[in-house]
Design brief:
Elements (H helix, E strand, L loop, with lengths): L4 H7 L7 H27 L1 H6 L2 H28 L10 H30 L24 H16 L3 H21 L1
Helix pairs in contact: 2-4, 2-7, 4-7, 5-6, 6-7
Main location: endoplasmic reticulum
Organism: Ptilorrhoa leucosticta
Protein name: Phosphatidylethanolamine N-methyltransferase
Length: about 190
């Protein structure tokens, strides 16, 4: 039996009807939906490759759009946290530094994933017919499946702890759920 009293108290600090919070949830959910739908559409039609003149150019353009959308998502996430109350019992140095450490580990996973996959490997090149010569099994893939997704989730978790933000923690759960669904869809 799970005691949810602490979670209920924690999320009592979150106004889920706040416009900024709703926009953050929508931007979090939209990103993986967008890139999966566009990538599958490209795989079936090759329409983007035709428009951009080559699969590589199309993949780079989609990657740029995904990067911009990720910046928008991060901005919405941050603004939603700032508009909601902090959990004063967490506004201490130890929480801040724990969040900083978690974000650093997440950043390590994201950057090392990108370096291992390259731009086209990171941004759905396989859907454009740009295939890697072999499956990447080096760090961080050697210790974690989908390290870019879980690294990104860790960055948001750390950011939430650094800001003592119950809203951030709830939004981090939305990130984790969105990536879990994306992994199921992509698999």
């Amino acid at each position: 039996q799970v005691d949810v009293a602490a979670m209920v108290r924690l999320f009592g600090y979150v106004d889920v009807t706040d416009t900024g919070f709703i926009v953050a949830v929508l931007s979090i959910a939209f990103n993986p939906l967008f890139w999966n739908v566009v990538a599958r559409w490209e795989h079936k039609t090759r329409a983007l490759s035709q428009v951009f003149g080559s699969p590589r150019a199309a993949c780079y353009c989609l990657g740029a759009v995904i990067l911009v959308l990720n910046c928008v998502r991060s901005h919405c996430f941050t603004e939603a946290m700032k508009s909601q109350p902090k959990l004063e019992g967490w506004d201490y140095h130890w929480t801040y530094y724990s969040g900083l450490a978690i974000s650093a580990v997440g950043t390590l996973f994201v950057i090392s994933s990108f370096l291992a996959l390259g731009f086209t490997g990171t941004f759905l090149g396989d859907y454009f017919g740009i295939l890697m010569e072999e499956k990447v099994t080096s760090f961080p893939f050697s210790i974690l499946d989908n390290p870019m997704y879980w690294g990104s989730t860790a960055i948001y978790l750390g950011w939430s702890l650094m800001h003592a933000s119950p809203a951030g923690l709830l939004l981090t759960a939305v990130v984790a759920i969105s990536y879990t669904i994306a992994v199921l869809y992509e698999g």
